[in-house]
Structures are given as C-alpha cells and as structure tokens.
Amino acid sequence: MIPKNQISVQRRIGEAVAAKMNYDFLCFRGSIMGEAYLGHSISEILASFFDQTAYRARNNFAHPVLSSMKRGRKPEIDYVVEDLATNQVVLAAEAKWAGSSHCSAENILWDLVRLKALKDSVDHECGTYFLVAGNREDVGRLFRAKLFRQGSHSPLIVGSRRKKSFSLSDNRDHQKLIDKQKKKWLEAYSDFSVPECLKTKLEDDSRSAANNMRFVARVWEVL
User: What is the pLDDT of residue 6?
Assistant: First the structure.
C-alpha cells in the first residue's frame, strides 16, 4: 500500500529532485548532472517515504511483463518499491534527464507504455510515475517536440493537472509516429500486447518547476 500523506509520493519526488539539482548547482556540481545523477535523489526520497521494515526501494528492476519475452539482458524499470512480504511492486517510476540524447519523444513514449503495461499486469494498487528533470531550457525545448505540441492529442500536458487520455490505436495527430514505434516494440517483443490507450496526470509542480528555478522537475502519474 502506498503511504498516504498530505504531500503525495510523486510530489515529494519532484520537489526533492528539483531542490537537489539547484542545491548541487550552487555547490559547483553542475558538471556531474545527468540521468545517472538522478538516481541518488530518487532512491533517497523513496527510501525515506516508505517503512524500510516492510518495503524495499530498488533501481534497474527487471520489467515484470517484458522480461519474460527477451533473452539476455532483461528490460528494466528505473525505480521500484517492493513489498517485502509479498515481493509485489507497489510503485514504479521512469526518469529522463532533459538534454540527453536518450531523452527523446520516442523514448518517453516507450517509458509511458512500459509503465502502463506494468500497471495493467498487477492486481493490486501500484503507483506508476514518469519524471523529467534538468535545466529549465532543456525541459522547455523537449516539450516543443511535435509529440508534445500544445493542442495536439499528446501523452503529456505541461501546465495542466487534468487527466489526459492518449490513444495508441486511433490518434488523430500522432498515429504515424505511434505505428512506427509499435513496429519497433513488436520486433523486440513479439508477444507484447500494446495498450490501446493510457492516461496521465501532471502532479502539482508549482514548487518543482517554479519560474525562478534554474533546474526543474515534473512528474506525471500514469493511469
């Protein structure tokens, strides 16, 4: 069970990551920042939020659905929290560093689909979250990509906390891109059942992406 509090776990992640980035920059540690850098902040906040006698925070966790479809190195989820009594995943998160070559619209879409597949595969409450963090300018540039264009049928909305439904089978704006990605996914995982749609919701980012911050973080819940 995800612990309940006045501040949600996803908001805590966003605010903690943003605060750590800005603090480290002021300590002249900007050169160490990148996707791997995010791991320490995210792991720490997850470990502090959950009772360590009942839950365990882990990174690079074999994806419960996709790992059975691939030989060799298993596809992984960036961060999970497991219930020690049942070994069930109760939280899963993917993170991207804005400005890196890996932080592309196509890779973000795949992260969202993998989180949705994980969520649909369990029969218990499991929080699934996607985080993007980095320099404000890099984050802004990312969300000017065609897939995230304002007013289009996109998977992530910036600036709105309403739930967003994103179709992967009948998308009026991005179906050509989606079909191209589906082909790649199914070439790698022939037995994978691509979700018909997914929903996302932006967590309150008034603190983690405030206008006066050099480095920002945004977190969406994948529903």
Answer: 66
Residue 65 makes CB contacts below 8 A (sequence gap 6+) with 114, 117, 118, 121, 192
199: exposed, middle or buried (C-beta count within 10 Å: 0-12, 13-18, 19+)? middle
* Contact indicator for 148, 177 with CB cutoff of 8 Å: no
Burial of 22 (0-12, 13-18, 19+ CB in 10 A): middle
For residue 69, the model assigns a pLDDT of 74
Contact 23, 213 (CB under 8 A): no
Interval 42-54: pLDDT, tens? 988 888 888 889 9
Largest CA distance in the chain: 48
Q: Which helix (H) or strand (E) holds 5?
A: none
> What's the token pair of residue 61?
């966790």
DSSP 59-99: EEEEPTTGGGG-SSSPPEEEEEEEETTT--EEEEEEEEETT
Q: What is the pTM of this model?
A: 0.94
Classify 27 in phi/psi space as left (phi over 0), alpha (psi -120 to 50) or beta. alpha
Q: Is the pLDDT of residue 1 over 80?
A: no
Q: In this structure, is the dihedral angle defined by the CA atoms of residues 175, 176, 182 and 183, taken in order, positive or negative? A: positive
- φ/ψ region of 112 (left if φ > 0, alpha if ψ in -120 to 50, else beta) reads alpha
**Of 46, 155, 42, the residue nearest 107 (C-alpha):** 155
Give the integer Cα–Cα distance in Å for 175 and 182: 10
